[in-house]
Amino acid sequence: MFKRKHNKPEINERQADWIDVSVPYEKPESIKAPEPKQLKEDEIVKYNEVLKHFQNPDISVATKPKGAEKAPLTDRERAWLTRECFLRYLRATKWIVDDAIERLELSLAWRREFGISGDNDTVTGEMVSPENTTGKQVILGYDSDARPILYLKNGRQNTKSSFRQVQHLVFFLEKVIDLMPVGQDTIALLIDFKHYDVEGTTSKIPSLSIGKQVLNILQTHYPERLGRALLTNIPFVAWTFLKLIHPFIDPQTREKIIFDKPFEDYVPSDQLDKDYGGKLFFEYKHDIYFPALIEQAEAKKERSFERFLKFGGVVGLSEYDLRGSNEELQYPVHQLN
């Protein structure tokens, strides 16, 4: 698993068929998201138990993990509690209803404390902007399964290890989720450890404590969100880091991690950065890309919330309806196939 492989040489000369891109890249119609999976009879019963719990009009959730103070759900939190959200947590807890409910309430409390619950958020673009001036995280294009791609470029690191680095990653996770197309609820991570000769950057690997903290957030509060993770240009020190963090990665996540395979095997060339064999001629310019990312993601998020209110503002609405363009509800809350 941790055997090093030789990487292909990077192509530096501009090619005639490259596509100029400076902002997040839209998904073409040719890439289709998967259709919803049919549930088994016992899975429907368990889903309905979770749904009923969160439909309780008197339900209150802790304002922070392990905290005693509680508060009712807000409209933004109800919008987060979609049909697909319940299913993700049920799958992550092996369809144990009580565990799924506990994990969902824990995540709601964590989102409140972390500052991403949707009401008076503290993790904002303005806060994390200094972390991304060198383009160390970029959302660009879609993989072959219509997953939005989040590039993590460790070699463009520009800050010292801090909690703001964790906030920065969570901010980008929220934005890549906002940009998901209809029918898709997983992401593709393309992780590049190569050092890029950009002013103010370092190739320093994150500390083990930051790595464990990020991994815990991903596995606890973003279950079933990772579709695949492609890692490339891994130096010796990064292999050491990966070996140290490996025991903390759950088995299902490990199966989705792919080491040193060509990115173009998993991403259409017209959706892939040229540095990895694709056709997108992308050069990160913070004052152009970062505001455009926020604008695009916020527009899609607000559109989904408006549709949430239009369709009744209740928990259990489907992301197919919230992200879609249908005028009538296609997935009623109480009907599962």
Task: Provide a concise account of the structure shown.
The chain has 337 residues and is an alpha/beta fold.
- Determine the number of helices (DSSP H or I, runs of at least 4 residues): 11
CATH structural fold name of the largest domain: Phosphatidylinositol Transfer Protein Sec14p
Low-confidence stretches: 1-10
Rg, nearest Å = 20 Å
Overall residue-averaged pLDDT value: 88
* Fraction of residues in helix: 25-40%
Q: State the strand order across the main sheet.
A: 4-5-6-7-8
Secondary structural class: alpha/beta
The span between the termini is 39 Å
Dominant shape: globular
Tally of DSSP β-strands: 9
Indicate the CATH architecture of the largest domain. Answer: 3-Layer(aba) Sandwich
Overall tally of domains: 2
How are helices and strands ordered from N to C? EHEEHHHHEEHEHEHHEEHH
Main β-sheet description: 5 strands, mixed
The CATH class of the largest domain? Alpha Beta
Task: Characterize the quaternary organization of these chains.
Answer: single chain
The CATH homologous superfamily of the largest domain: CRAL-TRIO lipid binding domain
Q: β content, as a range?
A: 5-15%
Characterize the structure shown:
GO terms for molecular function: identical protein binding; phosphatidylinositol transfer activity; sterol binding. Residues 127-284 form the CRAL-TRIO domain. One of its GO terms (biological process) is negative regulation of sexual sporulation resulting in formation of a cellular spore. The protein is an alpha/beta fold and 337 residues long. It folds into 2 domains: 41-121 and 293-323, no CATH class; 127-290, 3-Layer(aba) Sandwich (Phosphatidylinositol Transfer Protein Sec14p). It is 38% helix and 13% strand. It has 11 helices and 9 strands. The strands form 3 sheets. It has a 5-stranded mixed beta sheet, covered by helices on one side. Helix 1 (41-55) crosses helix 3, helix 1 (41-55) packs across helix 4 and helix 3 (83-92) crosses helix 4. The model is unreliable at 1-10 (pLDDT under 50).
